[in-house]
Write a structure and sequence with these properties.
- The structure is a single chain.
- The protein is mostly helical.
- It has a domain at 135-214.
- It has ten helices and no strands.
- It has helices at 3-17, 21-27, 32-39, 44-72, 88-107, 113-127, 149-165, 167-170, 172-179, 187-205.
């Protein structure tokens, strides 16, 4: 094998590996001049491959957390609970949820903890075998998967209700700060929207949700 061929193969292999996740994370805070010097030593393919590797890392971490929660609460469907539940499963999960949120915020004050908890719950249900992947709709153009409308509304509207319907739990000060330079929209309007959305979900669809403290 010639040197040139050997070098070409080595370059191709390196592009398929990507960078270590910790190294990639370091690029996020690296000064521009240092970043330019850093990337000079890598092929574009290697750096591009790292995009996929980095995205799989948080998914794998969420999966690991979900598996641990299943071990800690083996007999409880913690992944099906909502913040307003008073069931044994909800109470048991709440302690762990608080610990998870506290850790996430300690690492990144602006991290979307609600989204993280949602993803962990979804993965927990899958790992516990509580959720089966629905069959693909062969008649649809893109082969998209069917989902019961009630489930879709709950999954998509619940995060909005939690973010805007319960400002005390979602960070009222942060929302007010975001809207201070937008006089055409008041923070109170956002809170009102969340409250009305929650009431609509509860009254029209029977989704277990409490808007009393909104």
């Amino acid at each position: 094998m010639t040197t040139s061929v050997s070098t070409a193969i080595a370059a191709e292999v390196s592009q398929n590996i990507g960078l270590d996740v910790d190294v990639t994370a370091g690029c996020a805070d690296m000064p521009a001049d240092q970043l330019a010097e850093f990337v000079a030593g890598y092929e574009l393919g290697t750096l591009t491959t790292s995009i996929v590797s980095s995205e799989r890392a948080p998914y794998g971490a969420r999966r690991a957390v979900a598996a641990k929660l299943n071990m800690l609460m083996p007999e409880l469907a913690w992944y099906n609970t909502v913040s307003t539940d008073t069931t044994e499963a909800a109470k048991a999960f709440e302690e762990h949820r608080k610990a998870i949120v506290k850790t996430l915020r300690a690492r990144d004050a602006k991290y979307n903890t609600a989204q993280a908890i949602k993803k962990i719950k979804e993965i927990g249900a899958e790992l516990a075998g509580a959720v089966e992947e629905p069959a693909a709709d062969a008649e649809s153009a893109g082969g998209s998967r069917k989902r019961w409308p009630h489930d879709r509304i709950k999954a998509e509207c619940m995060p909005m209700f939690k973010a805007f319907g319960l400002p005390s739990a979602a960070g009222e000060a942060e929302i007010r700060e975001r809207y201070k330079d937008h006089p055409e929209i008041k923070a109170e309007q956002i809170f009102s929207f969340g409250q009305k959305l929650g009431a609509l979900m509860r009254d029209e669809l029977g989704i277990d949700i409490d808007v009393a403290d909104s």
